[in-house]
């Protein structure tokens, strides 16, 4: 129910709508709950709406922490 | 899939598990409650409990909106749907939840009621536009993630001048439920549930932000770490909680910084505040009446409120006999403690709501075969 997925915004459409690519599947979703989203941004999609933009820099930081840990492992 | 696969890497999971094992003090126990069903699902699906040292216990909380909706509200939705002029729409998960007497929306539909499954509130709005002769009632449930989409639909219905679109509002609030658990006799007096920290909601927090958890981290002196729904997110959050507990801290930390900020989504919050207001109380399955834990539609939008348009029965029939959903949602029992689990009650023939939604503890345990007995 609360599951949501990161999707790539590919095209802005009329009426606050956008086309997104969700792991290869194309969908039309609403941008009514977010502002300043551009094609190329990742957003988190839930029940047909973008809930928030995904912060690529923060994601990279978390992943860097993980790879450091994996590299340090014996 | 980008931003998904990287957070499911098995080698990193092993490294995280080793780091947790190294940091967890063998002389103490760590009882961590994941509030959200999304986390419960990830924990069962990836077998995360098996990766953790014995002294870390994950307790599954009430954070599945399908699971916490009391039977009476399902009965009410079915009664609404029986109105000849009504088309009732709802999300797929709701369709199979048994009401009292075992009747679900799916069953009511088979018996002739006009009930449709929708993927989005926009689908429900579209139905109202294309069927002006029908009264479209959206059976709205969910936490802070699902509430803003309902608010958008109401605002858009008003803008479009629709007079045949209604919302049967059952939206509930996460922070009040967490406080309620911490205040409960199970945790406070009886000590039947030991809770040392919380894994905080992922998508709920994208909307409300991390700030609302500050209050109870301080008030109840329990650390909270907000985590994404992927397995590495959950493991990293466990590690951060272990660290805080070891150091005697109880702050709010954010593992899901790629999507959650302290203030959350201001636009979504403002929209919700303009359409909804607090109910004095709302009934939750397992928790009973929780003060100020639910939302209703403001008077300004009364024309779209199904509860004002129709008389909705307010009775609260008991849960099915022998179903332990209530205790499971409070963290007092685990799915395998229920006598019906896997026998009379399976995802194909659910008796309680915890067996219906993929995020329900019983369904998650059953689907991924994790019913090993806990020490
Ligand atoms: S197994 Fe079924 S009957 Fe038992 S607690 Fe879970 S949902 Fe309820």
Per-chain topology:
The complex is a heterodimer of chains A (74) and B (375).
Chain A: E1 5-13, E2 17-22, E3 25-30, E4 42-46, E5 49-53, H1 56-72
Antiparallel strand pairs in A: 1-2, 1-4, 2-3, 4-5
Chain B: H1 10-23, E1 30-36, H2 37-45, H3 48-51, E2 56-63, H4 65-68, H5 71-81, E3 86-90, H6 105-110, E4 115-117, H7 121-130, E5 135-142, H8 147-159, E6 165-171, H9 174-183, H10 185-188, E7 197-200, H11 203-208, H12 212-219, E8 224-226, H13 231-246, E9 252-254, H14 266-275, E10 276-278, E11 281-284, E12 288-291, E13 295-297, H15 306-309, H16 325-329, H17 361-367
Parallel strand pairs in B: 1-2, 1-7, 3-4, 3-5, 5-6, 7-8, 8-9
Antiparallel strand pairs in B: 10-13, 11-12
The complex binds iron/sulfur cluster (SF4).
Task: Report on the architecture of this protein.
The complex is a heterodimer of chains A (74) and B (375). Chain A has 74 residues and is of the alpha+beta class. Chain A has one domain: SH3 type barrels (Roll), CATH 2.30.30.140. Chain A has one helix spanning 56-72, and strands spanning 5-13, 17-22, 25-30, 42-46, 49-53. Chain A has a 5-stranded antiparallel β-sheet, with no helix packed on it. A 5-stranded parallel β-sheet of chain B has the order 2-1-7-8-9, with helices on both faces. The longest helix of chain B is centred in the middle third of the chain and has 16 residues, at 231-246. The two termini of chain B are 37 Å apart. Classes of the chains: A alpha+beta (74), B alpha/beta (375). The interface between A and B is large, with 37 and 58 residues. The complex binds iron/sulfur cluster. Iron/sulfur cluster binds next to helix 16 of chain B.
